[in-house]
Amino acid sequence: MEPLKLPPIDYGALLPMLILFGAACLGVLVEVIVPRRARNAVQLSLALFAVVLSLVAVVMERGTRTITIGGAVAVDGPTLFLQGSILVLGGVSLLLIGERSIERGGVFVSQAAVTVGSQKDAQQASGQPGATEVYPLSVFALGGMLLFVAANDLLTMFVALEVFSLPLYLLCALARRRRLLSQEAALKYFLLGSYASAFFLFGVAFIYGFAGGIQLGVVHEAVANPQRSQVLLYVGLAMVSIGLLFKAALAPFHVWTPDVYQGAPTPVTAFMAACTKVAAFGALLRVLYVAFEGVRWDFQPILGGIAVLTMFIGAILAVTQTDLKRLLAYSSIANAGYLMVGVLALNDEGLSSTMFYLVAYGFSVLAAFAVISLVRDADGEATHLSRWAGVGRKSPLLAGIFTFILLAFAGIPLTSGFTSKFAVFGAAVDGGQTWLVIFGVITSMLLAFPYLRVVVLMWLSEPGETTPAVSIPGFLTSAVLGLGVLVTVALGVAPDALLDLTREASEFVR
Amino acid sequence: MKDFPFLSVLTLLPLVGALVVAFIPRTKAELAKMVALGWSVLVLVLSIFMWVAYNVGGDRFQFRESYTWIPSWGANFTFAADGIALVMLMLIAVLFPVVILASWHDVDQSTRSAPAYFALLLSFEFTMIGVFAAADIFLFYVFFEIMLIPMYFIIGSFGSGQKQYAAVKFFLYSLVGGLFMLASVIGLWVLGGKTFDFTKLAEATASIDQNTARWLFLGFFVAFAIKAPFFPFHTWLPDSGGAAPAGAAALLVGVMDKVGTFGILRYCLSLFPEASRWFAPAAMVLAVIGIIYAALLAVGQNDLKRLVSYTSIAHFGFIGIGIFAFTTQAGTGAVLYMVNHGLATGLLFIVVGMFVARRGSSLVSDFGGAGKLMPVLAGVLFFAGLASLALPGTAPFVSEFLVLIGTFSTNKGYAVVATLGIVLAAAYVLWMIQRTTQGTLNPALTEVPAMSKDITLREKVVVAPLIALLLVLGFYPKPVTDVINPAVQATMQDVGVNDPAPTVEAGGKVGG
């Protein structure tokens, strides 16, 4: 029998992921060893430390362009850039997750299994310190995302998908307030997410049947060969796409988004909106650009239609929302549509502008959810729009920050929202997809209205008796707000540094 | 003197002023007003220096400055002014101190903070100067969009009546136009070789195919037509003008709307000459409809501020036909009209604001015989009204005359119909003045103590410079037309229109 030969492994290239997975396992141990009192601080420090260390590893690997462990992982420009983005955004999300000063015990429930409404539940709601399992869960999710954007074969991608999805399902269920809503969100996310994963896996099987391999490079070569079965190719591509489109929240696979965004604890929502988006689009870019570039003429109009549908659904339904978290959920759907416009440019500029957009949007959306976590009353966050009337009079600084973020979402110049939209639209026109840009512009007009409505409510309405108090942000939330605003301004006023970085990173290895 | 970076300093100066004023505590309202006024006078002084340094008959674009901004997109902070931009910058510099002084007590009764109001006014000046000084299309677009923000808060926070509705409508209308323009800007950028420099793009657009150029033109034109506003995109202006504080409304129609006509001259005509000629008949029709339709609506208005807003839409119709008549005479008239309209309608809005502030209502029917109580102020209103209807001797007459004779030589029909607008102008202005200041005294007025207080010293200082300018430019417009003329000629050359030579009948028997 031939001795089993292990493929060579480039540990340096895998280091960022290894650090995170190691830290997550360590986090599980911390749960057992460290006394409850000190656990939160230890876990938060551990998680942040791991993220920073991992980021350092990514930066050190910045020149690496390689495919390693038997073709399962590709480390190249886009991988490293996206991993870096996920780590930075993830680190900022961890600050939000770690915030404990706004509400006694934090926003997470201490024991998720306690029956909702029971006496025990009332007790834990009144201020028991929240669960600290959230940290290892988040770090696992981050590790999965890092692998997801680096996966060079479809099975690795599937594994990564599950690794980052399962912790997210759990995290969604851990809200201290409105626990039924939170649990429902988690269940919904889990069920629909499982369907999507199943589609993805089924698609992988078809692709395997088509190409005789699951590595993206193999698929690429097979696509160029007209002898093979086109049915297997298209069915496989469609099913794999469904799995990815679900994660990226593109219509018609977006229906989970508003419920999950609303029900999940706000820091987790922020985490999903910022980091999951990067991971999902990162994988989508890799699959489309590396494996299926050869059939671009076939999928471009279909995915283009999906992009247009997404932009319209996001924009129109955002107008009708009365809950801020749901409004931001629909806005994130619309933004997924704009990202798709960038993806479909299918040129280097499309790649770099999409990556730019992901970073810019991630920081703005983190700041937006940080603001939402601050406006609260006795029942927790006051997310109903009517409660925000006159917030501008009561706390002008916070309302000013939120206004700025909303203007960024609306794409007003001198914010990152404008530069990123300009980048993806420019790339799409360059790539011959002018029709997508026209729909993008039309939906931008529609989408301006809901943002403006919030601005009007905050500044131009008189504060009523029910206008909730604005909590004084703790250090961690202040840091998130500051960072979010700073990056949104910086990428709006002087985007050149990041544009250059994305441009340099815009080449896949195959 | 010539090398002084006039345009960038002029642009940034009000922004710095706005920041300074914004940080003055709200209890020190007087200090905030003084600083804001002083700052705007400083801007005026600087722009006078610029006017002096401008070389009449020199290069088309002067005071050119360029600083790298986003090299990977080819976007720069490029500033340059031609004659058209220069006179608009002067208009801004003149109007802002006047408006700030006129708005002195506008926010005294409000629960909102006075420093915020004056900081918003100065930041509005910043965006206005920026939009006229920019010679980089990306930069122009940035200013074009952000100018909405200060005005949105001015209308929404400090306005009256349906202020929220007006503010949102204002913002959305302009934003929609801006996004159409964004699509065109992106298209132009991709087709024009990834540059935003106006001069380079003007060369590059010659090779864009006709059909595409027409679409690109349309994107720009819609944005500017909404901003100007031309019929049928005008409906936001009466709402905004009616709800905004009088001073801000004067700026809205006096300065901001000019961005629309300025944009058509600079960007539509020079970048897309063929498309401009192709669309010209449609634009002329819209302009003429605007003249008649808005004038008719103005006659029927009972709200003073809305009435003045409608008159302004009619005047923009004149500017529109002046631009699209494609003669240097009409073009010069149109640009001169932009200046004179800013002065005349600005004055009208400010004086109306003085009436409204005293009466506490802007309804025409709430006045009546007010001239008996305040003869001087009523006289000023009368003068402002006459200037607005372009009575000979006032500055708007010169521009209206130039537009009409310039248009007549190429488009007789439009000129004739537009002339009807002058008759209607007399109707709406005179009827408005008659119902507010003449006739029997409305007994309700005597019960309002403020109504018997005639013009104050501050108000005299406010109206005097505008009246003086309207009279001087009415008799001697040469300093302004000398600056405008070369720029308009250059624009008309871009469009490729040669002025028709004076025609003599074939085999003329002149003098028999």
Q: How would you explain this protein's 3D organization?
A:
- The complex is a heterodimer of chains A (510) and B (512).
- Chain A is globular.
- Chain A has a two-stranded antiparallel ribbon. In chain A, strands 3-4 form a two-stranded antiparallel ribbon.
- Chain A has helices at 11-33, 36-60, 77-98, 119-125, 134-150, 154-172, 179-211, 216-223, 230-248, 256-263, 266-291, 296-319, 324-343, 348-372, 391-394, 396-410, 416-430, 434-460, 475-493, 496-504; strands spanning 66-68, 73-75, 376-377, 380-381.
- Chain A is mostly helical and 510 residues long.
- In chain B, strands 1-2 form a two-stranded antiparallel ribbon.
- Chain B is mainly α.
- Chains A and B meet through helix 17, helix 18 and helix 20 of A and helix 5, helix 6 and helix 7 of B.
Describe this structure in a few short sentences:
Chain B: Its EC number is 1.6.5.9. Chain A is mainly alpha-helical.
Topology summary:
The complex is a heterodimer of chains A (510) and B (512).
Chain A (H helix, E strand, L loop, with lengths): L10 H23 L2 H25 L5 E3 L4 E3 L1 H22 L20 H7 L8 H17 L3 H19 L6 H33 L4 H8 L6 H19 L7 H8 L2 H26 L4 H24 L4 H20 L4 H25 L3 E2 L2 E2 L9 H4 L1 H15 L5 H15 L3 H27 L14 H19 L2 H9 L6
Antiparallel strand pairs in A: 1-2, 3-4
Helix pairs in contact in A: 1-2, 1-5, 2-3, 2-5, 3-5, 3-11, 3-14, 3-19, 5-6, 5-11, 6-7, 6-11, 7-8, 7-9, 7-10, 9-11, 10-11, 10-13, 11-13, 11-14, 12-13, 12-18, 13-14, 13-17, 13-18, 14-16, 14-17, 14-19, 14-20, 16-18, 17-18, 17-19
Chain B lengths: L5 H17 L6 H25 L8 E9 L4 E7 L1 H20 L11 H20 L3 H10 L1 H11 L4 H29 L6 H7 L5 H18 L8 H8 L2 H11 L1 H14 L1 H27 L4 H21 L3 H32 L10 H4 L1 H14 L6 H14 L3 H26 L5 H4 L10 H19 L2 H18 L17
Antiparallel strand pairs in B: 1-2
Helix pairs in contact in B: 1-2, 1-4, 2-3, 2-4, 3-4, 3-11, 3-15, 3-21, 3-22, 4-5, 4-6, 5-7, 6-7, 7-9, 7-10, 9-12, 9-13, 10-11, 10-14, 11-15, 12-13, 12-22, 13-14, 13-19, 14-15, 14-18, 14-19, 15-17, 15-18, 15-21, 15-22, 17-19, 18-19, 18-21
